[in-house]
Amino acid sequence: MKILVTGASGFIGSNLIDKLLNQNYDISIVTRKLNNIKKYNWPSKVKVYEKNLLSLSNEDYEEFSSNDVVVHLAWDGLPNYHDKIHQQNYKTSFEFIKNLINNGTKHILI
């Protein structure tokens, strides 16, 4: 099974990737900065897309939709829950999910 994970450098995402790799899933991640994942033991074991969710192309969505499951965990500004960045996070996540669905993604976990 092919699984794409956003938010891989966060607490939940990084631990999820460890668990999924232990179960022999084929993992891809989306990260804005490669430096964010260097501290983990799994970057060489996953396919890495260095992309910003704000600027994905139609080709990116087509490729991402080839995964069986997309796990969307990316969310900036935590734990500052009063930051206005959360309004942008909502818009970005909404567009990301909508584009995944429009490109045929069947299973999305958020």
What percent of residues are in strands? Answer: 15-25%
Give the termini distance in whole angstroms: 18 Å
Q: How is the biggest beta sheet arranged?
A: 5 strands, parallel
Number of strands: 5
Question: Percent of residues in helical segments?
Answer: 25-40%
Give, in spatial order, the strands making up the sheet with the most strands: 3-2-1-4-5
Overall 3D shape: globular
* Count of alpha/pi helices: 3
* Alpha-carbon Rg, integer: 13 Å
Q: Averaging pLDDT over every residue, what do you get? A: 90
Helical/strand content category = alpha/beta
- Stretches where pLDDT falls below 50 for ≥5 residues? none
- The helix/strand series, from N terminus to C terminus, equals EHEEHEHE
Write the layout of secondary structure elements.
Blueprint: E1 2-6, H1 11-22, E2 26-31, E3 47-50, H2 58-64, E4 69-72, H3 85-102, E5 108-109
Give a quick precis of the structure.
It contains three helices and five strands; from the N terminus they run E-H-E-E-H-E-H-E.
